[in-house]
Amino acid sequence: MARLAEIRQETATARTLVFHVAGWPGHLAGQHVDVRLTAADGYTAQRSYSLAAPPDRDRVELTVQRVPDGEVSEHLTGPYAIGDPVEIRGPIGGWFIWQPVEPEPVLLVAGGSGIVPLMAMIRARRAAGSRALFRLLYSVRTPAERYYAEELRTPYAGLDITYVYTRELPEGRAGIPRRIDAATLNAVAWPPEFGATTYLCGPTGFVETVADLLLSLGHAAQSIRTERFGPSRD
Ligand SMILES: Cc1cc2nc3c(=O)[nH]c(=O)nc-3n(C[C@H](O)[C@H](O)[C@H](O)COP(=O)(O)OP(=O)(O)OC[C@H]3O[C@@H](n4cnc5c(N)ncnc54)[C@H](O)[C@@H]3O)c2cc1C
């Protein structure tokens, strides 16, 4: 049984939850867990959440986005409080993972909360002192909806970050809000022959659109690893 130890508000509607999980076996960046809530009448609900940070003894970090009327996310971002128990199963996943021994360049493409497992990779890279080149392309609606904004403002050697805003630009930034398109990927992604691995994560529609764009630009299907979080509301 896990217990909530710490809460960090990431945005107005997303929070990082740090749990103590006795006997946690450790995990790899990119893996996820299943979180199961049980009500007083025995009713249970279970959802998947990505691990947001590399292993740190019995600490497990998740970042949960509140989905309007969402059965589990509204509870975890609302009444769920320090000391409360929850059942956490995992770690789960063996394909959407990155390990610091891998020297190839890495392109990370996140849509909204899809940044969570990619942040675990960025943090694992830094913790291990890896010199693999990383590029992050992060699509969010507005500047206020960026997760981990402070941490990503601090420069990391070998990590380039590009934000794409779909609804509202930061003050003073020229242009208009837009979505990731072929031109964005041409500008941010390395050419296919560079041999980068892409990790692409976000709402289902976002992942499918970006994966199709990468394929149309000549990136090999086996170089693109995807994780779909669920429906896209746009
Ligand atoms: C492998 C994996 C990893 C995930 N990691 C994360 C994570 O790190 N952080 C995170 O916040 N979420 C993550 N998710 C999504 C998460 O599992 C839930 O789907 C999400 O929290 C909504 O659950 P809910 O019970 O609140 O909503 P529900 O009660 O299931 O659904 C309420 C309404 O919201 C819609 N909806 C359901 N899921 C989503 C969604 N993902 N996006 C938009 N609308 C949705 C439904 O269609 C429905 O209309 C992950 C999903 C998967 C499969």
UniProtKB/TrEMBL annotation:
InterPro entries: Cbr1-like_FAD-bd_dom, FAD-bd_FR_type, FNR_nucleotide-bd, MRET, OxRdtase_FAD/NAD-bd, Riboflavin_synthase-like_b-brl. The keyword Lipid metabolism does not apply. Its cofactor is FAD. Keywords: 2Fe-2S, Iron, Iron-sulfur, Metal-binding. Residues 1-98 form the FAD-binding FR-type domain. Gene3D superfamilies: Nucleotide-binding domain of ferredoxin-NADP reductase (FNR) module, Translation factors. Transmembrane segments: none annotated. This is Ferredoxin reductase.
